[in-house]
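Illustration 12: Short-chain dehydrogenase/reductase SDR.
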Amino acid sequence: MANRLAQVAGHISGNYSQGLLKDEVAIVTGAAQGIGRSCALIFAREGAKVVVSDLDENKAQVVVDEIKKAGGDAIAVGGDVGAEDFPEKIVKATVAKYGKINHIVNNAGFTYDKMLHTMPDDSFDVIMKIHVRAPFRLIRAASPYFRVKGSTENRSIVNVSSTSGLHGNVGQANYAAAKSAVVGLTKTIAKEWGVFGVRANTVAFGFIQTRLTAAKEAGATIVVDGKSVALGIPGGGKQADANKPVPGIPLGRGATPDEAANSVLFLVSPLASYVSGHTLEVTGGAGI
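Figure caption equivalent — predicted structure in token form:
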């Protein structure tokens, strides 16, 4: 612990040679783009060995190549986080390569918006499956590497939620329910695994400039159970205009993926060594 505190002190003073996550192993799901990609790159910069996971393994490999080009260490593991064999697949690949797991960032997900009275069961169920069941199953599969008595290593779980999960949102009964459930899951992990020195936290994002908040008219889609699901918000791209402050956000703008990822870095790093069971709202002041 003394070494970790010295490392933190060195980082704060401007000595970045060690990195906040030096020699730690982090799994990041949904890491080929957006917030997940930024997390993977920033973690690697801070010395972590990163397992870059995404539905599209080719895109995940591009991020791995970027990390390696910068002198970091990473591997790509493709697959659907909701698949029955995914947790065992990624845990096995991680341990085979690096021998341990320090952090899991459950970031993978998407939106499937419908008004409540027109929302079919399948669009509700798939969001719950990807945003709640999948993180639960991955964390459970990795439990032997977290429930280690006497370990002094920095270990944590970060589950990605949303302001929709905290306050609800029109057209997102499924997404809001799932992201609310994530908070309860995280608090339970904090209570059950705290005795092993494991921290568990949630980060609830507001308006982050990703494909989920871009204009739906741009045509971004994801294939879910053979169906093409449109991503984005009608007219959403207009919110990113730097010359037009975003209503309801005191800082007046959406966050970049890197800004979002920096909040996750804080939660997994030794800087948050006594932060567990917390929901960190990253909203630019919205909702206060």
